[in-house]
């Protein structure tokens, strides 16, 4: 096991810092205590999520998403929810062999959940994002079960449990985000 830190810069300006604890160790016991949500349909039965901007040069163009629990853009009317949003997502270029980097990208959906929870066309950008890998498994779709815990003083906080189609818990991602309205 090791701890690592990487800092990315543009000139003298720091734009990204990654702190990580990496590795695994033998241990004779296992357990998974977060259940796979059984109240959501498979991705084929869910409507595709439309992006606000479907431009080919945006990162969202590399995803396919299906909204299982949540509202499309036109139904966001300012009414709050219980804070739960569930969607299926996959990276078009990766296929079923999703690695930890792919999970890190998919783990960035808490701001989407914040917009859903508040019922606004908004979300935010993250000052922090923690990904905890549980187990990698081959899967074509990842189920993101997002729980927004709170929004206060301009910040939203939440967690996403990430599951393979077969119910394997792949990872958890927790985030805070600066809440913003989208133009």
Summarize the structure.
The chain has helices at residues 100-106, 110-118; strands at residues 2-10, 13-22, 63-69, 84-91, 122-133, 142-152, 155-164, 169-181. The chain is mostly beta strands and 183 residues long.
Structure, described:
By secondary structure, the protein is mostly beta strands. The protein has helices at 100-106, 110-118, and strands spanning 2-10, 13-22, 63-69, 84-91, 122-133, 142-152, 155-164, 169-181. The chain has one domain (40-181): Porin (Beta Barrel), CATH 2.40.160. Helices cover 9% and strands 44% of the residues. The chain has a six-stranded antiparallel beta sheet with strand order 3-4-6-7-8-5. Strands 1-2 form a two-stranded antiparallel ribbon. It is globular, with a radius of gyration of 17 Å. The relative contact order is 0.17. The model has no long low-confidence stretch (mean pLDDT 90).
């Amino acid at each position: 096991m090791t701890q690592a830190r990487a800092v990315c810069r543009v000139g003298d300006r720091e734009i990204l810092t990654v702190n990580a604890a990496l590795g695994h160790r033998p241990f004779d016991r296992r357990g998974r205590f977060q259940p796979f949500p059984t109240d959501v349909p498979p991705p084929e039965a869910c409507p595709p999520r439309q992006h606000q901007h479907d431009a080919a040069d945006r990162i969202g163009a590399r995803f396919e998403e299906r909204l299982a629990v949540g509202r499309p853009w036109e139904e966001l009317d300012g009414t709050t929810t219980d804070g739960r949003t569930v969607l299926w997502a996959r990276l078009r270029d990766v296929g079923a062999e999703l690695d930890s980097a792919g999970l890190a990208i998919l783990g960035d959906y808490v701001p989407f959940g914040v917009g859903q929870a508040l019922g606004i066309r908004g979300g935010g950008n993250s000052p922090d994002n923690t990904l905890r890998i549980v187990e990698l498994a081959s899967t074509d779709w990842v189920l993101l079960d997002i729980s927004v815990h709170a929004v206060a003083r301009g910040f939203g906080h939440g967690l996403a449990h990430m599951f393979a189609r077969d119910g394997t818990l792949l990872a958890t991602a927790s985030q805070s985000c600066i809440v913003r309205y989208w133009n």
